[in-house]
Amino acid sequence: MNESPEISMSCFDKRFLPHIEQFLGGRSHPAPQVGHLPPKPSTLRGQMGALLVRLVKRALFWYTDQINRALFSCTNEMKEIHTQTGELFRHVAQELSNLEQDRAESQRREAQIREKLNRATGDLHALAQDHAAAQQRETQMREELNRAITRLRVTEQELDEQVRSMNQATEALRVAVEAEKTALREQFESEIQSIRESVKKTDLLTRQTRAMLQAQESRVSLLMRRQTVGPAPVCDASENACAELDTLYVAFEDAFRGARNEIKERVAEYLPLLTRKGIGTPLMPVLDLGCGRGEWLEVLAENGLTALGVDSNESCARECHERGLNVRTANALTFLQELPEQSQGAVTAFHVIEHLPFQTLLDLLDEAVRVLKPGGVLILETPNPANLIVGSHTFYLDPTHVRPVPAELLRFFVESRGFCGVEIRPLHPFPESYRLDENTKSAAVLNDLVYGARDYAVVGERP
Q: Which contiguous run of DSSP H or E holds residue 439?
């Protein structure tokens, strides 16, 4: 093995470092000045040398100081080099010591690794023996497995034959079941369709029968009233008082009903319903009860539909005549009772039923069923009491209102008098600027109760 760096450096220190230190130490003393004479020699040679030195001194007296300064500077440089060299040697010695410690630690670890390697070699040898035994067992198991596979293949072929037979039987059974299911489904659908058609016909017949009964009851009631009493007076005061009230109510509608163009835009939404059913022709005319200022009649006329208005207010009728609208001045129920059966395509009443007593409302519905043709339409629009502002305040702005009618109640009345396909249409909610931010469920409920639909319409069809 090679000599360690520490031993080599130690030998270097012992051989050369003392000579360097002696040399540098000698230089640390004041150097003899060039030109200074040594002590007087005792020999002739020394005396001759001293004489020669004097001669050289006298010849080089001008250069002696410079030489002395150079020697002194060199001496100082050598001292600095000596100091730095000593520091360097000490640092190198420390590093060599650290290297020696690392070498000793490496030797210790090498010994540990060798010991572990020896143990691993022994374990590997044992594993090799176990592997050889395992290979032998594997060979035996493989032979047994091959024999088992051979037996399984024979069994598999037998099972395949059985499965193939079962599949064929299953497929035949599935085909038979599907055919049976298809036949049963077709028979069931046919029976269901037949039942649906029967139910539909029965329902239509029931509604038609109800409508006919209502019409017959209406005719009987009308005949009995005509035989017992005459028609009720429209106004129990003088004619001048009635005219004054009519004029006052027209002014009231101008103040609270809304602008004419606004009302026309609102009622125009019913036009698609009429045109889709072919209503508005001379054979299917529209009868508007309580036509008021005639906004609905004007919309119908602008769209080329045939219509007739009825209102007991002479001022309203006069205003409609001035606009060229076809209007009769009469009581709505009385006018209906005098019409022939199945003579109208549609009966409409905008904000009328809230002015009627309960029995009058039922009579009006009965007469509407009687005068409408099959497929004719009934449209009733009224204030929505489910809106808290309407139900508690604005409904009572009109002193002629009798009572508000809830939407569910009116739909029940309309359906009970023989109409079909009855629907409720919420109308005219408050503008969005009125509504609260619906950050909570309670805000959404409050918006519906306070700022929801102010009116609603019930639409039904005469079967």
A: none
Cα–Cα dist 417/364, whole Å: 10
* Nearest residue to 344 via CA among 288, 268, 424: 288
State the pLDDT confidence band at 36, using cuts at 50, 70 and 90: low
Domain segments of the chain as ranges: 5-127, 231-461
Helix or strand (DSSP H, E) at 379: strand 372-383
Q: Are 366 and 218 in contact (CB under 8 A)?
A: yes
How far apart CA 353 and CA 364 sit, in angstroms, is: 9
Render pLDDT for 185-226 as a digit per residue (tens, 0 to 9): 888 888 888 887 877 777 667 766 766 665 566 556 656 655
* Two tokens, residue 316: 């309203």
CB 330 within 8 A of CB 322: no
CATH architecture of the region 231-461: 3-Layer(aba) Sandwich (3.40)
Count of positions (residues) in the chain: 463
DSSP H or E stretch at residue 142: helix 64-228
pTM > 0.85: yes or no: no
Report the alpha-carbon distance of residue 267 to residue 294 in Å, rounded. 11
Q: How many Cβ atoms are within 10 Å of 335's Cβ, its own excluded?
A: 19
By the 8 A CB rule, do 360 and 442 touch? no
Region 158-176 average pLDDT: 87
SS3 state at 457: strand
Q: What is the pLDDT of residues 350-389, one digit of tens each?
A: 999 999 999 999 999 999 999 999 999 999 999 999 999 9
Q: What is the secondary structure of 49-106 as a DSSP string?
A: HHHHHHHHHHHSTTTHHHHHHHHHHHHHHHHHHHHHHHHHHHHHHHHHHHHHHHHHHH
pLDDT classification of 250: cutoffs 50, 70, 90: low
CA-to-CA distance for 365 and 415, rounded, in angstroms?
10
Q: Residue 415: which pLDDT band, with cuts at 50, 70 and 90?
A: very high
Give the integer Cα–Cα distance in Å for 341 and 373: 8
| Alpha carbon distances (Å) from 16 to 2, 9, 21, 92, 140 | 22, 11, 9, 16, 79
Residue owning tokens 């290297």: 99
Residue that has been written with the tokens 């690392």 in this structure? 102
Extract the tokens encoding 208: 């038609």
Cβ atoms 412, 406 nearer than 8 A: no
